[in-house]
């Protein structure tokens, strides 16, 4: 059963680390529809992945689910945090249906 929301905010996922609670997030994403999905910092933990990457299948499936959502009409806004600051250089661009911004108004 799908639950519909106007907006959903997700932060501090830390994909690429062992501490990531990927199974819970994937379950959640697969059971919602939302007009706008805000990804608010530290979605992919590039900082920790430099030391030791732990990017398992469930992490890939989360990204795939987000791309499916974007193709299905969900507006996705990604605001990089300190652990995924690398993506700030893409602010103002849309990659695979995901708008990368420094802030949202």
E-strand count: 5
Estimated radius of gyration: 13 Å
What's the helix-strand series?
Answer: EHEHHEEE
Globally, the shape reads globular
Number of continuous helical runs: 3
Q: How much of the residues is beta strand, in percent? A: 25-35%
Oligomer category: single chain
Secondary-structure class: alpha/beta
Average residue pLDDT: 96
Strand order of the largest sheet: 1-2-3-5-4
Tell me the helix content: 25-40%
* Low confidence ranges: none
What is the makeup of the main sheet?
5 strands, mixed
How far the N terminus sits from the C terminus, by CA atoms, comes to: 31 Å
Give an overview of the whole structure:
With 105 residues, the protein is an alpha/beta fold. The chain contains 3 helices and 5 strands; from the N terminus they run βαβααβββ. It has helices at residues 22-30, 46-49, 57-71, and strands spanning 3-10, 32-40, 75-79, 94-95, 98-100. It has a 5-stranded mixed beta sheet with strand order 1-2-3-5-4. α1 (22-30) links the parallel β1 (3-10) and β2. It is globular and about 40 Å long. The protein starts with a strand and ends in a 5-residue tail after the last strand.
Give the SSE layout.
Layout: E1 3-10, H1 22-30, E2 32-40, H2 46-49, H3 57-71, E3 75-79, E4 94-95, E5 98-100
Parallel strand pairs: 1-2, 2-3, 3-5
Antiparallel strand pairs: 4-5
Helix pairs in contact: 1-3
